[in-house]
Amino acid sequence: MEERNNYNVKIETGDHGYVLEDIPHLTDYIPNLKTYPNPMRFNPAYSVVKQYFIDFDDTVPEKVVVQKNGPRGVHFRRAGPRQSVYFRSDQVRACVVTCGGLCPGLNTVIREIVCALHHMYGVTRVLGIDGGYRGFYSKNTITLTPKFVNDIHKRGGTVLGSSRGGHDKSKIVDSIQDRGINQVYIIGGDGTQKGAAVIYEEIRRRGIKAVVAGIPKTIDNDISVIDRSFGFDTAVEEAQRAINAAHVEAESAENGIGVVKLMGRYSGFIAMYATLASRDVDLCLIPESPFYLDGEGGLLQFVEKRLKENGHMVIVVAEGAGQELVAQSNSSAAKDASGNKLLKDVGLWLSDSIKAHFAKKKDFPITLKYIDPTYMIRAVPSNASDNIYCTLLAQSCVHGAMAGFTGFISGLVHGRHTYIPFSRIVDHHNKVVITDRMWARVLSSTNQPSFLGPKEVLEFQKVEEQRAMELMEGENYQSNITSTSGTRFECTGLLRCLSCG
Ligand SMILES: Nc1ncnc2c1ncn2[C@@H]1O[C@H](COP(=O)(O)OP(=O)(O)O)[C@@H](O)[C@H]1O
Ligand SMILES: O=P(O)(O)OC[C@H]1O[C@](O)(COP(=O)(O)O)[C@@H](O)[C@@H]1O
Ligand SMILES: [Mg+2]
């Protein structure tokens, strides 16, 4: 892990407990930079828009549910075009890179960065970095023009290619410097944005006039602070096809069971939302909610009961669920090139366990079909709603970069586009809070047991009580500040973590 300094932390406070978690700006380390009028002022498409430019003071609250006497809390800078920019259009040399796993919408984001730069700001020099971070120093670049990217949003994947591992700070920043790049757009998940933070810090240390702007990507929706990540909506929609297939197979057999594995390494959002959307699911398993197989109240007993009642059932399991159980039969600490733990196939393990259980019962034949659609879901192009979302994220990012902001990601917070400091999203995963209403809705829609014993219930209650106390004492905003400066509040997913919102 790289040693991190305080370049990312920029807190401003105001009246009534107002806190702005601000993002860095080029002028923080390069004084007296020249500004230019925003070229959008002269763009006929936008000339009719009243108050098109964002007021310098506009910020967006992290929490919208507040109490009468509570502090105003943490805010983020509102995204959008500024009156002045810190780059002359003909001096911009931008690059775009995509890293980590695939996600629907990557091509749309690439397309819209290129088009926003060209059409809004008159920037013509945009390079694509081939194959993720290592492409900065080991591959040739791709010239990105509006013509080149015209149709790419209709395709899945990323036209730039992607990879895990290969983040070499010095080589990457050398390459940025050698090529004269002054705007770096980095599309990727938590790992990628950790890498982006390191690149930003090195650029700043070298005193280079280059901005680093991130667009958060992850199909798992596990990036904290933001409302949702792009591609998530598409993934939930696509997952319906697999769940439908599992349901058809299960319904057509005697004691038919359909098992569907969906992505979600640390967070079960896809499984949870796909279950809620489908209404055909009898059991949803996610990493945040522990379960057990055998004995009274266990999963196998529930499967047997549901089969006796309905004659068939559908199980949706997130890939990160029950990993500690799978590891008991097959443990290994293997990691991928980025250092992410490689998961065991919980779907296969669960299917085998169910089959083995019923094989022992002579009078209870079952038919089980296991469907793993994970890579098929990840490879589709983004749907209409994600396409629009990707467009706005990309445009926000370009506005921020042109305005000289750096070390930020663009993200949606309560429906408003904002700029969020890297520090706020990289050390922390967004998780399903199983003591929240959404998970209760899943339990009530599937009518599945929660698998929580009295000990766990007590533990959850204690955590919830502590949280209520903290909120009463108005410590929530204090905790957020603490977490920004490095002392992280560890989110277990059991409680609504203050940083998760
Ligand atoms: N702590 C880190 N510091 C620097 N680079 C990192 C770090 N973690 C991951 N990366 C780099 O980010 C890229 C993508 O990370 P990965 O975890 O595979 O995907 P994602 O960004 O989707 O989470 C990889 O090239 C990896 O080397
Ligand atoms: O097999 P791969 O490509 O390494 O990807 C598997 C992982 O990628 C994901 O789809 C997304 O992970 P990232 O956001 O880290 O890219 C996970 O759900 C999954 O565990
Ligand atoms: Mg990741």
TrEMBL record:
Binding positions for Mg(2+) per the UniProt entry: 190
Regulation: Allosterically activated by AMP.
Binding site for ATP: 101, 164-165, 189-192
Pathway noted in the entry: Carbohydrate degradation; glycolysis; D-glyceraldehyde 3-phosphate and glycerone phosphate from D-glucose: step 3/4
Site (Important for substrate specificity): 191
Cofactor: Mg(2+)
Enzyme Commission number(s) from the entry: 2.7.1.11
Keywords: Allosteric enzyme, ATP-binding, Cytoplasm, Glycolysis, Kinase, Magnesium, Metal-binding, Nucleotide-binding, Transferase
InterPro entries: ATP_PFK (IPR022953), PFKA (IPR050929), Phosphofructokinase_dom (IPR000023), PKF_sf (IPR035966), PyroP-dep_PFK_TP0108 (IPR012004)
Catalytic activity of the protein: beta-D-fructose 6-phosphate + ATP = beta-D-fructose 1,6-bisphosphate + ADP + H(+)
Active-site annotation: 220
GO process terms (BP): fructose 6-phosphate metabolic process
Annotated function: Catalyzes the phosphorylation of D-fructose 6-phosphate to fructose 1,6-bisphosphate by ATP, the first committing step of glycolysis.
Protein name as catalogued: ATP-dependent 6-phosphofructokinase
